[in-house]
Design goal:
The complex is a heterodimer of chains A (111) and B (112). Chain A is mainly β. Chain A is 0% helix and 56% strand. Chain A has no helices and eleven strands. Chain B has no helices and eleven strands. Classes of the chains: A mainly beta (111), B mainly beta (112).
């Protein structure tokens, strides 16, 4: 079992729709959770961080965390073509709290 | 200009050659990391350092070496023992163990 798993996609949504990205993790004591966006050929950039159960909203982005189910998700409302990218879920794992990444979900927003 | 700087952006290696990738930061962060990314894949940890003169192996350290002689610098050497080095290499920094990582622009290494 991978430590951090994401649906590899690709995921396509029409412009203006809600995109839903999911991530599960194996370490029950993980404390920090992050979503990164990576455009093709570029380095990842942080878009959301979440540390406690529930929802956290920032503009069109909402991160959801459920530690009991070991599940974190990212919702993108009113999706735009500029949101087309690969989204990486990252979780701190182990006593050294290494930042471990999922394999990413490729999102395409269709005009 | 503050942040994290990787160089070069593109690097070509001949068979049997060692090459060194540079990573410099001026944010005074303690922790520095090297990740490797292959096409269509996530990031895999090569090495990390949480303090000067100390570093630890990550999941795929074989064929790589690092040093941390100064807080602001964490160079990665890809040795000839790394048989498949073609990849996108990313350096990252973190302020503490619970915070996010910030990435440099990356170095794309190709074997020729």
């Amino acid at each position: 079992q991978k430590e951090v798993e994401q649906n590899s996609g690709p995921l396509s949504v029409p412009e203006g729709a809600i995109a839903s990205l999911n991530c599960t993790y194996s370490d029950r004591v993980s404390q920090s959770f992050f979503w990164y966006r990576q455009y093709s050929g570029k380095s990842p950039e942080l878009i959301m961080s979440i540390y406690s159960n529930g929802d956290k909203e920032d503009g069109r982005f909402t991160a959801q965390l459920n530690k009991a189910s070991q599940y974190v998700s990212l919702l993108i409302r009113d999706s735009q073509p500029s949101d087309s990218a690969t989204y990486l879920c990252a979780v701190t794992i182990g006593s050294a709290r290494q930042l471990t990444f999922g394999s990413g979900t490729q999102l395409t927003v269709l005009p | 200009d503050g942040g994290i700087t990787q160089s070069p952006k593109y690097l070509f290696r001949k068979e049997g050659q060692n090459v060194t990738l540079s990573c410099e930061q001026n944010l005074n962060h303690d922790a520095m990391y090297w990740y490797r990314q292959d096409p269509g894949q996530g990031l895999r940890l090569i090495y990390y350092s949480q303090i000067v003169n100390d570093f630890q192996k990550g999941d795929i350290a074989e064929g790589y070496s690092v040093s941390r002689e100064k807080k602001e610098s964490f160079p990665l050497t890809v040795t000839s023992a790394q048989k498949n080095p073609t990849a996108f290499y990313l350096c990252a920094i973190r302020d503490s163990l619970n915070t996010e990582a910030f990435f440099g622009q990356g170095t794309r290494l190709t074997v020729v």
